Give the backbone structure.
Amino acid sequence: MNDQTNPGAGLHPWLMVGLGSPHGSDRLGWDLVQLLQETRPEAWTIRMARVPTDVLDWLEGCQRLHLVDACPMFEQLGRVHRLLWPDAQILRNRTTTSHDYDVPQVLQLAQSLGQMPPEVVIWAIEVEASTRLDPTPDWMLAAARMITSTEFCDKAV
Amino acid sequence: MNSPDVPSRAIRVPILTRVEGEGSLLVKLREREILDVQLAIFEPPRLFESLLRGRPFSDVADITARICGICPIAYQMTAVQALEAVFAVSVDPEIRSLRRLMYCGEWIESHALHVHLLQAPDFFGLDSGIELAERFPDEVKRGLRLKKIGNKLLETLGGRAIHPVNLAVGGFYRLPKVAELQTLISDFEWGLAAAIDTVRWIATIPLPSIQLPYDYVAIQHPDEYGIIEGEVVCSDGLRISHHDYEQHFGEIQVPHSTALQSRRVPTGSSYFVGPLARVNLNREQLAEPARRIADEIQFPTPCHNAYYGILARSIEVVHAFAEGLGHLRSYQGRADARVPFSVKNGAGCAVTEAPRGLIYHRYEVDAQGRIELAKIVPPTSQNQAQIEGDLRALLPSLLDQPDAQIALNCERFVRNYDPCISCSTHFLNLRIERE
């Protein structure tokens, strides 16, 4: 097969992806990365994904992959978890998803295909399905500040 | 007839996996008698039709796009075209070509995902695409790259990857630059060849044998493979204008599901929409490379084996790349982005072919352009009754198996339909009850 595509086009070496949907507080991942857009150093690309398998489209050339997603609240609204893949907690606490493949499965698939970036971080923010995100709550701004101070200042710039 | 004293058994698939949305399956048995089969959809109704009432017509495409993250274009396109029928808008041929191109992108990304990650593992006895990727890394990588090209096209034409915003009543909000589409041509050339190789690979998979009397329904157009408009045709010979859709197809509520089920009127019988229906009814109108590969693999027509849906879907990926390539090469960017029109009161409907099958929208609009009534019939609502009927037909051949194996085989069968439960209410859990 004659491959005439440009394999280098659209590479995202440092990629932060917000996962979400327009329904209820599931849009948290989207909203958070939009907040991060403003403080993002140039080296970072920020994208939003409808389903975790979307991430597979962007792994070519990716060195650092950070996923931002809502997780069910079990301790405190807005509590932020920074999980470094492979994290046993992610695999142990998998939840039912209406997505075809959930985040751990997509990452396992990437591993099987040899496409796993060297650094994969999952930012999981505790939230309830009915939590209102509009106007932007203080805990969400705090979560954005935590991601910014951890990723965009200490290491990324 | 078995005695009611004989205990019955129930087999449950509490959560159907590798489908879009959340649902479950319940099979009730007494010895070898199948008492009931219920595809239960328990996601709450999303009430989109009510949500649209009172909104300006210009909001409809953006709101209906949110019904589904996988096939937003199908909802947008059908909505926009139904509203264009209200306002008597006729779009420029170049706009029409771009709309077909956009739909090709959605078919590519949706079909490539389903073929490679959702359904193919079933035929190798594998649990997931992860295991498939370990066994067939090159094929899975190829499939993911096909999907990526579909998404790239949608992002180019739709303005963004998430819930595209570019489709408008009368055309598009912004037309792509010629150079933007030309950069996709090499991707589509690669994609066409890769999609043909995918069909050849899928054709080597031994598919289970089953023959069921299907009533296929799809749209048909005299000049092209039916995608964005045409008459509604059925394999039993019915041929109707889309304006008469509701006279021949009606939705009913069943107690076990939050999604409405669509049936033929007046018989109340089930019917089958989607790629297998389309290839059966419109094979001669497939793009030449798709027709040629269908002939090469000796795809049977008529085909009454639902497992062949994976092949039909793969053939349609070839079609979408071949047709898309034509649109990309011919685009000159000469049309105005939108046709001017006057808002007026009235009613209009449209049918298009979503990746999973026929979709119907009807709107009534007041003189200010506000939505007074919206009716949306997604493909999975139309296939639900057929899925239940198919499982009734399939189950006698499975009854000697342990319940867990029956559940697994039922779940695999349901995936033939690529159901998007999120769309229809809107996952599947299987439960088998043996009395």
Summary: The first strand of chain A starts at residue 14 and ends at 19. Chain A has four helices and five strands.
